[in-house]
Design brief:
Elements: E1 4-7, H1 11-23, E2 27-33, E3 47-51, H2 63-72, E4 77-79, H3 89-97, E5 101-102, H4 107-114, H5 116-125, H6 141-151, E6 155-163, E7 166-171, H7 174-192, E8 197-201, E9 207-215, E10 221-233, E11 236-242, H8 251-267, E12 273-280, E13 286-292, H9 299-306, H10 310-318, E14 336-343, E15 355-356, E16 359-362, E17 368-372, E18 379-380, E19 387-395, H11 398-410, E20 412-415, H12 421-427, H13 431-434, H14 442-446, H15 448-481
Parallel strand pairs: 1-2, 1-4, 2-3, 4-5
Antiparallel strand pairs: 6-7, 6-8, 9-10, 9-12, 10-11, 11-14, 12-13, 14-19, 15-18, 16-20, 17-19
């Protein structure tokens, strides 16, 4: 039966979810706010609901107002996308109390896996390797020093409720630990409303590997292989690949890490789409980091190499329907996919650069998908995340995907705002990235930003030359006219 599904989000993920909702024969319902009355995702929704307010606190994070609107419009289910209320246990519980389906895992799974300290303990109980460090929250600098002495420096101070690279600091000795302890606690409190910290062993030259899970209410748990998310700035991902070039042809490691993720998901009775994140050392030993109990920004690359529609199957799982997948053997890796996050930010400072898109166009090669929320006149607002699109490039193998990436990036035109497109273009021509030899320290070690600065200077010179040429032609024209 057709159901009313409220897409409780905005931007490209709201478009992606609305498409899946309609494809499954349900009614897509979307929000519009005072600061985004012409939100592009509304074009894909059947019903529009006004959520009054001009900031996230009064709109997309306003739990009571959202519940009120859901009751008023007889909503059957809510898909939270990512961010906002997507991993909020209270929200999931309140929906359940009102008889509204939360399109995500059950509340207990969110509660257990959303807290880094609890999830680490769950992982241990499931026999999943974890990064050496504190078992729970660290209450004092003295306790932090004691743990650091046991696991040896360098260590990572990390917010219990953290995410997105916030509330994290590497410490190389007692002095740095003392210096950072209170500031990281304050940042954790400010960003997540929880000052709790963990102390973990910092893995040198690590790789950020994550495994995509999809599960149903009948107890079936499948993995859709891994993604490499090691190209990061300020602990935030900007490029992701599937499968991982670091794991490469090592099928034994691939099978081991994927089955470990399934093992953990079964431990908490997981019943939705989710991602188990690991940190992998240079010797390919891996440790559990955290579990994201929602759809990920980078889910499209997994969809492209497995042909599994993760969002549609997530919706099916929530309603208790059978998944498209019947066995693990059905899921195979077909080719290679790379995702480039297109963000409205300065390509040199990497800081957000809000503004208005004046013009937008592209001519992509075959095998390119662009999930975005852009149109001429679209305003990138400072209160929202600066990511405005995801360029997903698919090839027969990684070399083909890289070749198509360079073509696709050079033929993506955005005017009126600064973007990180130039940084991506530099990275796709950099020898270490081409060879697939990079860790989470890639940006700081290779520093492609320096080449972006050089490119920017060259562009300035070209623009100056063009301006001089135009002035010259104008002078000549005036003389001829006279």
């Amino acid at each position: 039966m057709s159901k009313r599904v409220l897409v409780c989000n905005r931007g490209e993920i709201a478009i992606r979810v609305a498409k899946a909702v309609k494809e499954l024969g349900h009614t897509a319902v979307g929000f519009w706010t005072d600061n985004e009355p012409n939100a592009p995702h509304l074009e894909y929704c059947d019903i529009w609901i006004h959520l009054p307010g001009s900031d996230n606190t009064t709109t997309y994070l306003n739990m009571e107002l959202i519940l009120e609107k859901a009751s008023e419009y007889e909503i059957d289910a809510i898909h939270p996308g990512y961010g906002f209320l997507s991993e909020n246990t209270t929200f999931a519980k309140k929906l359940n109390e009102k008889g509204i389906v939360f399109i995500g895992p059950h509340a207990e799974a969110i509660e257990k896996m959303g807290d880094k300290a609890i999830s680490k303990q769950v992982a241990k109980e499931a026999g999943v390797p974890v990064v050496p460090g504190s078992v729970g929250e660290v209450d004092s600098i003295e306790e932090a020093k004691k743990i650091a002495a046991e696991i040896k420096y360098p260590v990572l101070l990390k917010a219990v409720a953290g995410g997105g690279g916030k509330g994290m600091r590497v410490c190389n000795d007692d002095k740095e630990l003392e210096k950072n302890f209170e500031p990281v606690k304050r940042e954790a409190q400010s960003s997540f409303g929880n000052p709790g910290l963990l102390v973990e062993k910092f893995i040198v030259n690590p790789h950020h590997i994550e495994v995509q899970i999809i599960a149903d209410k009948a107890g079936n748990v499948f993995h859709c292989f891994e993604r490499e998310c090691s190209v990061q700035r300020r602990h935030q991902k900007i490029i992701e690949e599937a499968p991982s070039p670091f794991i490469g042809e090592d099928q034994e490691v691939r099978e081991k890490i994927c089955q470990t993720a399934v093992q953990l998901a079964k431990q908490v009775g997981y019943d939705s789409a989710g991602t188990v994140e690991f940190i992998m050392g240079e010797d390919k030993s891996f440790y559990f980091l955290e579990m994201n109990t929602r759809i990920q920004v980078e889910h499209p690359i997994t969809e492209e190499i497995t042909r599994v529609d993760l969002v549609a199957n997530m919706i099916k799982a929530a309603f208790g329907d059978s998944l498209d997948i019947k066995s693990q053997d059905q899921i195979q890796i077909l080719g290679h996919a790379i995702e480039y996050r297109i963000c409205a930010e300065d390509p040199v400072t990497l800081l957000p650069a809000p503004g208005e898109v004046v013009s937008f166009d592209y001519t992509f090669p075959q095998g390119v998908r662009f999930d975005h929320c852009i149109y001429p006149g679209f305003e990138v607002r400072p209160e929202f995340d600066p990511m405005i699109g995801k360029l997903i490039v698919v090839g027969y193998d990684r070399d083909v995907a890289l070749r198509k990436s360079r073509e696709a990036l050079s033929n993506l035109y955005l005017d009126g705002i600064k973007t990180n497109k130039a940084l991506h273009e530099i990275i796709t021509t950099e020898e270490n990235f081409i060879a697939g030899k990079y860790s989470t320290h890639y940006i700081s070690e290779v520093n492609p930003v320096e080449r972006v600065e050089s490119l920017k200077s060259d562009d300035d010179l070209i623009l100056k030359a063009l301006s001089q040429e135009l002035n010259y032609m104008r002078d000549v024209n005036e003389v001829l006219h006279y």
